[in-house]
């Protein structure tokens, strides 16, 4: 009788461990539309970017302008190139993005987030590199709101003793 219980417990542990292995090895399918593009939405601060990627020569178009014309600062251009460098697919994808809201820095971050998400949807094998670099996580920091009785969000009015 004790041997049967032991064997049933073993059977349950084997079943549970095999389910865990099946869950751990989820096979992700590439998500592409009829034109062979992958779409993702990227967000940063108040900026929201809609990003489409497809195989090409590495051309990046943001709001109808070339990347160099829209993001004039070299730092912002570098931010947009980071996902491709980490994934090791530089100059292999064309990017078409529309971005709204926020300032240029937030918009660059939103496009970077969108490119990263679209890359991992187009080629699921790139997910590990992009995730370990932290590009798939949305940076949730936003501007703190102004409170009443304060000059800014936290700054008080100047105190005068007399």
Q: Characterize the largest beta sheet: strand count, sense, and whether it forms a barrel.
A: 5 strands, mixed
Strand order of the largest sheet: 1-2-5-3-4
Give the helix level as a range of percent: 40-55%
Which quaternary structure do these chains form?
single chain
Listing every helix as H and every strand as E from the N terminus to the C terminus, the arrangement reads HEEEEHHEHH
Radius of gyration: 24 Å
Mean pLDDT over all positions? 88
> In percent terms, what proportion of residues is strand?
15-25%
Overall geometry: elongated
Give the helix/strand class.
alpha+beta
Uncertain residue ranges: none
| Tally of contiguous helical segments | 5
How many DSSP E strands?
A: 5
Distance from N terminus to C terminus (CA atoms, Å) equals 89 Å
What would you say this structure looks like, in words?
This protein has 162 residues and is of the alpha+beta class. Helix content is 41%, strand content 18%. The chain has helices at residues 2-24, 67-70, 74-87, 104-122, 127-133, and strands at 38-44, 47-55, 60-62, 65-66, 93-100. Helix 3 packs parallel to helix 4 (104-122). It starts with a helix and ends in a 29-residue tail after the last helix. The model has no long low-confidence stretch (mean pLDDT 88).
Features:
five-stranded mixed beta sheet, about 40% helix, about 160 residues
């Amino acid at each position: 009788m004790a041997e049967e219980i032991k064997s049933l417990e073993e059977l349950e542990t084997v079943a549970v461990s095999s389910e865990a292995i099946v869950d751990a090895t989820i096979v992700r399918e590439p998500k592409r539309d009829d034109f062979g593009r992958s779409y993702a939405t990227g967000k940063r601060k108040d900026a929201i970017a809609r990003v489409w990627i497809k195989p090409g020569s590495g051309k990046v178009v943001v709001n109808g302008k070339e990347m160099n014309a829209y993001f004039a600062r070299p730092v912002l251009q570098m931010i947009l190139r980071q996902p491709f460098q980490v994934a090791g697919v530089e100059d292999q994808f064309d990017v078409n993005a529309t971005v709204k809201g926020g300032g240029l820095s937030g918009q660059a971050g939103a496009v970077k987030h969108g490119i990263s998400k679209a890359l991992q949807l187009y080629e699921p094998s790139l997910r590990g590199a992009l995730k370990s670099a932290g590009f798939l996580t949305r940076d949730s920091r936003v501007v703190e709101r102004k409170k009443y009785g304060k000059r800014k969000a936290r700054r008080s009015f100047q105190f005068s003793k007399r």
